[in-house]
What we know:
By secondary structure, the chain is an alpha/beta fold. The chain is 29% helix and 25% strand. The protein is built from 11 helices and 20 strands. The strands form 3 sheets. Strands 1, 10, 11, 14, 15, 16, 17, 18, 19 and 20 form a 10-stranded mixed sheet that branches. β15 and β16 form a beta hairpin. The protein is elongated, with a radius of gyration of 24 Å.
Amino acid sequence: MKRSWIEINLGAIEYNLEQIKRKIGKNKILACIKADGYSHGATPVANAIKKKVEFFGVATIKEAIALRDAGIKKPTLILGTILPEDASAVIKNDLIATVCTIALAKALSEEAKERKKIAKIHIKVDTGMGRIGIRPVNAIEFIKKVKAFPNLFLEGLFSHFPAAETDKSFSQKQIRIFKDLITGLKESQIEFPFYHIANSPAILNLPGSYFNLVRPGIVLCGIYPSRKIKKTIKLKPALSLKSRVVFIQEKEKGDSISYGRTYRAKERRTVVTLPIGYADGVDRKLSNKGVILIDGKRCPIIGAICMDQLMVDATGIKNLKIGDEAVLIGKQKKERISVEEIAETIDTVPQEIVSRLGKRLPRIYKGQYKWQK
């Protein structure tokens, strides 16, 4: 019997992709499955949707090669920048690099020429994220220089929103900058097959940002970027996090729980222990704040969450016994604990909650969705 585990419904992911497709119309999709598909499993997710998307997007070369090793040949963009010495791995594995330095463009060109290949690249422009990318004012000159290198195919031009869910005014400004750049490039007889800037919140919130390619990530998993964003697409959460009761004890008034004695019982309480902790990705900030479900009822986490265990006040749960299922994320009977709720509780983003779930938690996959035409 598994003590703690993750369940992933691949059918829900397929359903979410269909809803995204209905929303964006004829535009193409680059499915972001970085961080092991936000802990949903990059390879199983990719296999479930590879026939229905045009690209995959990952964060690192290692993530991309893992897809190749699993037999997934779909065009894959490394969304983060890489070093020139990484050019060999990119060309060898037929990956697509994000380029925002001349040094990397040169290295990719030389490696592709040596291997008698054409390297596909996407150029990143910084319209306001402030992370990586060419400044728009320098972009046309930069692109002309890159275009002059042999054995390179400039397949995509893209940018990224820092606040598509919270600052529409700033995001609209970014869209204008991006459009102006595209116009300027066309005047210089430079065009790209793909233009993309829309991430998950922009897909929900900014239809004017679609261009001809969008990049859904967290919404593929059925998770909204925040609880406050307008839910213009109906999503189904794909992931559940579960554990089991392994110990039951009665605590008297004044008894303390866990490290630091941050919780002390004000009256007699029934306390259960679950074999899951911060080493599994349960954020320690949920100590004395978070809740879990037992028998479909919300039970508070009490005391400091430990590396491998946490304690829960299960007072009032009838017929409580060792082995009972506890839900940390997901639905039990009529109650649900969402990733968005947990993120709001500890003032972070939903992406962090799921992407930090530990590798030692076994993943159980189920579900298949029948697409509607």
